[in-house]
Write a structure and sequence with these properties.
single chain; alpha+beta; eight-stranded antiparallel sheet; 13 helices; binds heme C
Length: 464
């Protein structure tokens, strides 16, 4: 075994830690974890005991059609992963980012507890979404991170070798693996921040033409089409109400796909809410500029929302920090993963997505609504719908999507590139002998399953 790298990481307490990258498994064999690597010494905090995590798989599977039981589990999970860790920040924010996990040639990481990128899921899909996809961070808990490193799932050459060995699947993740995708929104300085709020009603048609399992229409309900807004008061001084205000914002009814050039209209009665209703992370100019290219993502988003052009020079004048507005969560407690999703709401206490919220969910985290995947069948004989408005909301037919039906297609083949499969809304389960996996008549088109994790298609390591 060799320790290949020492990664200096400024994140959190400017700790320096090291991990081994393990040994190249010979002939697609799985290297037993203990022998493969020296463990990371880094305080990635686990979900503490008391939140039914990890649940007993048989018990959870037996409840897979029980909406209430699945919702309760989702809320408790959310409570667990948002518990303040010893550092006072939520446990999930100590987890490993996608780049930390998947990049073989690790960059020096800037001093932020998370990494931000435009949602990959939306980047590869230009039609029908706004210029600027929301910024997201994909984070792996310790179990998931260690497994990826042990099995070298971040190493393209290793995946190629497994594929050459005719493997149908990568090894399965351990039961206590958790992966999340958090969605962030920039908070401006000097003035109130506008935040669109998902009302639950699409403003564009769900169905504008279906052929087979493919949905060719390109009209999503991305955040630029949501008709409800709130204005966030930057101070955050615990006032129960700031009343309402008027805001000029683009007119969703014009259906223009480039909001910064769209006609605006006046929204009246916009509720003003205080920043302390959100999980807020302040950003300094050096935090953001340390991200280099990511500055342009902020810039695009800010330009689109406020029509201000930010640069490294004026950044501090305009940008104050980020708030978390949405979160996808997947845990390997079930063989096909347990899927749930959360989004901030100005009225978090009403409606079906507020139901069953556990008292263990505390503080700002009580401002979220939630949906969960169950094994129930929908009337169209497809799976029940579950989506996050910030992410799948942007897809055509996203409002009838289901996490599992899309993620079942996360797969590897040597010439793979993020393609249609990652953003087309499918509604049927795939059998193991589906040509998508087997390659049909052409075995070179075989897709090796990645245990449902799309981000593993985004490896940039050796072999690229
Ligand atoms: C139409 C396709 C699609 C649907 C539907 C979908 N996702 Fe994803 N998801 C993706 C893609 C593509 C990525 C990879 C994004 C990246 O790497 O930045 C992803 C990434 C994720 C991740 C990060 C881990 C990973 O590698 O997969 C989680 C967690 C996740 N999704 C959860 C969910 C949940 C929960 C739902 C349902 C509420 C859902 N997804 C619905 C396409 C989809």
């Amino acid at each position: 075994m060799s320790i290949r790298r020492i990664y200096p990481i400024a994140a959190l307490a400017a700790l320096t830690f090291l991990w081994g990258t393990g040994r190249q498994p010979a002939h697609g064999q799985v290297v037993p974890p203990a022998a493969a690597t020296q463990m990371a010494v880094r305080p990635a905090r686990d979900i503490p005991p008391g939140f039914d995590f990890p649940a007993d798989r048989d018990r959870l599977q037996a409840a897979a059609c029980d909406v209430r039981a699945m919702r309760l589990h989702g809320w408790r999970l959310f409570a667990g992963l948002t518990q303040p860790a010893e550092e006072g920040i939520p446990a999930f924010s100590t987890w490993y980012s996608k780049r930390q996990t998947l990049d073989m040639e690790s960059p020096a990481f800037p001093a932020l507890p998370f990494s931000l990128e435009p949602a990959q899921q939306l980047v590869s899909f230009r039609d029908g979404i706004p210029n600027s996809p929301p910024l997201v961070s994909v984070l792996f808990n310790r179990a998931a991170f260690e497994f990826i490193r042990f099995q070298r799932l971040h190493d393209k050459n290793n995946l190629k070798e497994m594929w050459n060995q005719q493997m149908m699947d990568v090894p399965e993740f351990p039961l206590d693996s958790v992966v999340i995708k958090a969605v962030w929104w920039p908070i401006r300085k000097n003035g109130r921040t506008v935040l669109p709020v998902w009302t639950g009603e699409g403003t564009r048609p769900i169905d504008c033409g279906v052929s087979g399992d493919m949905h060719p229409c390109h009209q999503g309900n991305d955040y630029s089409t949501w008709p409800q807004l709130v204005a966030i008061e930057p101070g955050g001084d615990h006032r129960p109400s700031y009343g309402t205000t008027e805001i000029d914002y683009y007119d969703v009814s014009t259906n223009v796909q480039t909001p910064s050039t769209a006609p605006t209209r006046r929204y009246s009665n916009v509720q003003v809410v205080s920043l302390d209703r959100f999980y807020y992370v302040p950003l300094s100019a050096s935090d953001v500029s340390a991200y280099g290219a990511r500055l342009s993502n902020f810039a695009n988003l800010m330009h689109q929302i406020y029509d201000v052009r930010i640069t490294t020079e004026n950044l501090e004048e305009y940008l104050q920090g980020m708030i978390l507005v949405g979160m996808h969560v997947a845990t390997k407690e079930l063989k096909d993963w347990f899927w749930c999703t959360f989004w901030w709401h100005v009225d978090p206490g009403s409606g079906p997505y507020a139901a069953d919220r556990s008292d263990q969910v505390r503080g700002v985290w009580r401002h979220f609504r939630m949906d969960v995947v169950t094994d129930r069948e929908a009337p169209d004989r497809g799976p029940m719908v579950a989506y996050n408005p910030w992410l799948e909301g942007a897809f055509a037919n996203g409002l009838i999507s289901n996490c599992k039906m899309c993620h079942q297609r996360a797969a590897f083949r040597p010439d793979y590139s993020f393609g249609r499969e990652s953003h087309t809304v499918f509604r049927s389960p795939l059998r193991l002998d589906d040509p998508y996996y087997t390659g049909g008549s052409n075995p070179r088109n075989r897709n090796m399953r990645l245990d449902y994790l799309w981000s593993l298609t985004d490896i940039r390591g050796a072999g690229r």
